[in-house]
TrEMBL record:
Its EC number is 1.1.99.14. The keyword Plastid does not apply. It comes from Methylobacterium planeticum. InterPro entries: FAD-bd_PCMH (IPR016166), FAD-bd_PCMH-like_sf (IPR036318), FAD-bd_PCMH_sub2 (IPR016169), FAD-linked_Oxase-like_C (IPR016164), Oxid_FAD_bind_N (IPR006094). Keywords: FAD, Flavoprotein, Oxidoreductase. Residues 1-181 form the FAD-binding PCMH-type domain. GO terms for molecular function: FAD binding; glycolate dehydrogenase activity. This is Glycolate oxidase subunit GlcE. It comes from the Bacteria.
Length: 395
């Protein structure tokens, strides 16, 4: 299989034009750390962003950073950290979960709309993404967005590219808004709550004025011998003290929580963010299920009655990470049936190739939405060169 690794945008555009002339399907990658997400590849060559590196813009006072798509994410994060800033949405590192190597890239954060526990407060990656440059399926260089947030008239290509998994264009540069690192971070840890009570507690905290930046529940066996319910608060030291005290009073019917800070607290949230509980499990498929937070426990219980598995909750119960045997359909029928009743969507994040080829990996679309999806794909990639079939068969 041929592999292309351009070092410039014009070179990348030339590769795409030549591939279009040959009708040569291309697998678009950064460092290939998420290669196992999506349907199995249906391509003839690889086009990698690894040669497109370097920070192109950083203005700390404006809280904006831009870098070429192949720039290692860690390099950008180190630069931001040196100035007391961060990417707001806490991108996850799923290398252990996916059993891949290499350095996650800045462009892949946008392509996968990668966001972690802070999403409940700061939004997803797409909410901070303000500019993209990419090569479309005709080999044309497209620029959309810029250095400031603004209203958009017509098709918002910046948001469209976020979470498109390389199916619409080859990203060459992305621009994000950033935020200051908070002075202090503390986590309230409640022990012993069952899942329904935990979601009730998380909902009460999230509905309060005390601004959580993380809200997760780890059932027994995931967190250790007893369940743990986690609530993160960040800000100035005095404000964290005040909010922690106010939350203790508000939630006293759920017990008295411990206050965890420093590396111990950071490790708790890395575990939630990176799905560490399921990283070492052999023979298990891993699902990412989104639903209304108040329905999270009911969805998990309903799936659990149909199929054995292990799960935990993020986003106040709105995100369920589920591990189940990969045999058969890896639980797809039970999961889709539950979500048809309760609402939401699910993505099969990890499973063997035969399973990913046999069951829908991303949430199935209604026929009207599929027509829109095919139309957008045709407009940006008329010959279907980019990651064909990765998200949906035939698209």
């Amino acid at each position: 299989m041929r592999s292309y690794e351009p070092t410039g945008e014009d070179e990348a555009a030339g590769v795409v034009r030549e591939a279009a002339g040959r009708s040569e399907p291309l697998r678009l990658v950064g460092a290939d750390t998420k290669a196992g997400i999506g349907r199995p590849a249906q391509d003839a060559a690889t086009l990698s962003a690894r040669g497109l590196t370097g920070v192109t813009l950083y203005e700390p006072a404006e809280m904006v950073v831009a870098a070429r798509a192949g720039t290692p994410l860690a390099e950008v994060q180190a630069l931001l950290n040196g100035r007391g800033q961060m990417l707001p949405f806490e991108p996850a590192d799923h290398r252990r979960l996916m059993r891949t190597a290499g350095e996650p890239t800045f462009g892949a954060v946008a392509a996968a709309n990668n966001a972690g526990p802070r999403r409940i407060n700061a939004g997803a990656a797409r909410d901070s993404l303000i500019g993209v440059r990419f090569v479309n399926g005709r080999g044309e260089v497209i620029k959309s967005g810029g250095r400031v947030m603004k209203n958009v008239t017509g098709l918002d290509l910046v948001k469209l590219m976020a979470g498109s998994w390389g199916t619409l264009g080859f990203l060459t540069e992305v621009t994000f808004k950033v935020l200051p690192v908070q002075e202090r971070t503390a986590t309230l840890v409640f022990g012993g709550l069952d899942e329904a009570r935990a979601v009730e507690a998380l909902s009460a905290a999230l509905g309060s004025p005390f601004e959580l930046t993380g809200a997760a529940h780890l059932p027994a066996g995931i967190a250790g011998p007893e369940p743990r319910t986690l609530m993160r608060i960040e800000g100035f030291a005095g404000a964290v003290d005040y909010r922690a005290g106010a939350l203790r009073r508000l939630l006293r019917r759920f017990g008295q929580p411990d206050l965890v800070e420093g590396e111990a607290g950071a490790a708790l949230w890395r575990g939630v963010r990176d799905v560490e509980a399921f990283c070492e499990a052999d023979g298990e498929a891993v699902w990412r299920i989104s639903t209304a937070p108040v329905k999270g426990a009911a969805v998990a219980a309903e799936i659990g009655r149909a199929r054995a598995g292990r799960w935990y909750y993020d986003w106040g119960g709105g995100l369920i990470w589920l591990a189940t045997a990969s045999a058969g359909d890896a639980g797809a029928a039970a999961i889709r049936a539950s979500l048809a009743t309760h609402g939401g969507h699910a993505t099969l994040v990890r499973a063997p190739d035969p399973v990913r080829a046999a069951v829908p990996v991303f949430q199935p679309l209604t026929e009207p939405l599929m027509r829109v999806t095919r139309g957008i794909k045709a407009a940006h990639d008329p010959k279907g060169l980019f990651n064909p079939g990765r998200m949906y068969a035939g698209v």
